[in-house]
Amino acid sequence: MSETSRKPKYSDSKHLPIYRYKAKLIQAVEESTFLVVTGETGSGKTTQLPQYLYEAGFSRNGKIGVTQPRRVAAITVAQRVAQEMDCTLGKEVGYQVRFDDCTCQDTVVKYMTDGCLLREVLADPGLSQYSVIILDEVHERSLNTDILLGLLKNNFSNPSKATKGRSFPLKVVVMSATLETDKLSAFLSCCPVFAIPGRVFPVECTFGSAVKPKDVESTAYVKEVVKVALDVHTSELAGDILVFLTGQSEIERACDLLFEKAESIDYRYDVLDQTVEGLLILPLYGSMPTDQQRRIFQPPPPGIRKCVVATNIAATSLTINGIKYIVDSGFVKQLNHNSRVGMDVLEVVPISKSEAEQRAGRAGRTSSGKCFRIYTKEFWEKCMPEYTVPEIQRTSLTAVILTLKCLGIHDVIRFPYLDRPEERFILEALKQLYQFDAIDRRGRVTKLGELMVEFPLHPGLTRALLKAASVGCEELLLPVAAMLSVENIFIRPGDPDNQKEADKKHRALAAKTGGMNDFATLLSVFQSCKSSDRPSSWCKDNWIHWRALKSAFSVETQLREILLRLQQRKDFPVETFDGNKSELFRRCLCAGYFTNVARSSVGKVFCTMDGHGSMVHIHPSSSLFEQEVDLNWVIFHDVLVTSRIYIRTVCPIRYEWVKDLLPKLHEVDVYELSSVAREEVTDEEMMKWETREAAKRQQEVSTVDVV
Ligand code: CDP
Ligand code: MG
């Protein structure tokens, strides 16, 4: 195949380990359907391979699609590749992440999150627009990547599916930075493995004394990390520092502290390496604005040491050149299913040993380096697992199971999973889908389920939105769904005076809607800002994140477009409702949040009604936190687990509104769903089951009534 016009502009890409294998890699992709590519992080897999395939002419048959588990990685890598190929981002090279599509008709190299590709599979199971799909960062084992792996494998074992809508065969490349390649190859019909040899330099690792086994839940590590980073700055030779923390607020705090302390350094006396004359501190986390992300990759000015304070994203997804020192907090923020509350909760947990090795390795890419672990050797031995558990085995599967069902895969238990989730997680997902009326008792997708799958939102929120649309009040729910899909809009400054001021403003915003409903506050903030003449200064005055609100405006438009499309269907549900607006609003919310209902228990403690019966408290950020009125029943958006379980984004409801929905929470026993999951139910079994269930339901309804 001949070379096309856009050649890499950056000559330094020729120095990457992958460069020598260009021709062989192209040949390997040409010769096989599936190919596993492995190589050290930073060897050039993500940025170079798609360009090689483009140059080799693969894009003549369709786009080259590259998936990433993280949105920041998809965006920054696309930026870099657009630069290297000397084209405008969004033209030949583009990206797509949830609610942000930066591609056009001409896009041939498309970076996207794995979630976006999964949505595309729903619309076009044969992926007919693509010539090559590259699943990247497979070692991260994100839920969506794991599902895509299974789907692509499935497609090829079923030739009619694989070729549907296609005139040429699809190539699939699976890229991973770690050693699980044998397992991957075995999974993909023993496909070839291409290993890019790379040189790694030794990294000297030391343990600290700050984090001991009993400190698992402590956040004191932020201070320690700052101290160690400053020590490195003053007593080590030139070379950049990469600090690993867990999330945005922590990172911002660490950067503030670092900045403050670095100010007082006297470079004549305090610093060992006299070529070092300053410290440049840069945060790196998921929801950061893109122009700031770009600065991370630029080399610092001469004499200046760069210190990047990042989340786990810098462990494998992004490679920053020039890093010589690592400061590792030993923690990561992870979404885990919390069996105590029966929900997925973002938790700060110790990283695995393999993750710690990966973090350390970032210091040894181009020369030897050092890694300072702030935790003790004992912490390493006792608290850190060997490997990270794949997401599919630790989070809610509700949304992906609905996707699989919509793709016609009914036997969700025997679906080819690279690592099988526990059966009870699959059954739990089926149960929730059944509660939301997305599937029927036979496990088949309902009309409502077909509508629900179209929205990139949590099924509960989608259910509430669809309910609102069916009674003609989507104007109330669209903004709320959008506001709950962006980062936190309320700014809470660090210093006490400003904090007081911000809290006061936020309370005033809540009071505008009666101060009793956090969902209504979100709606009101959205509307007030949108109708303001100068929305950015309105935000500034009210301590609201303007950037987050701008995203919310765009998300709302996109959700509205999806809804409008669905409303054209003849079978879109229509209901009538009489009652006032506040009641209507809250009743629509109940349709999606009846799984998150809590009832007042003793004092200000509430008890959830989902069978877990957890004792929960209203979070201080809620406008209901300080209310003196007696609340009886409430619904909530999510929970935060610390030493207590807090519910956030809360609103009071009346028992009558959920009375008919609550029994559904106890209607089916997950284990009875296991036969449904396999699509083996005979009519006779179904009848027996239904009779038994009806009797049980009768009993339970009366129990709830007594409550
Ligand atoms: O995918 P893999 O880890 O093998 O490497 P890569 O992400 O393709 O990175 C190759 C090189 O590109 C590294 O030296 C990165 O620092 C550089 N890069 C960059 O400078 N800016 C980006 N936005 C992405 C990568
Ligand atoms: Mg990569």
Automatic annotation (TrEMBL):
Entry keyword set: ATP-binding, Helicase, Hydrolase, mRNA processing, Nucleotide-binding
Any single Pfam family the record assigns to this protein: DEAD
SUPFAM superfamilies assigned: P-loop containing nucleoside triphosphate hydrolases
GO biological process: mRNA processing
Domain of life the protein comes from: Eukaryota
Catalytically driven reaction(s): ATP + H2O = ADP + phosphate + H(+)
Gene Ontology molecular function, alphabetical: 3'-5' RNA helicase activity; ATP binding; hydrolase activity; RNA binding
Domain Helicase C-terminal residue range list: 229-408
Helicase ATP-binding domain sequence ranges: 26-197
Keyword Hydrolase: yes
Catalytic activity, EC: 3.6.4.13
Record-stated family: Belongs to the DEAD box helicase family. DEAH subfamily.
Entry protein name: RNA helicase
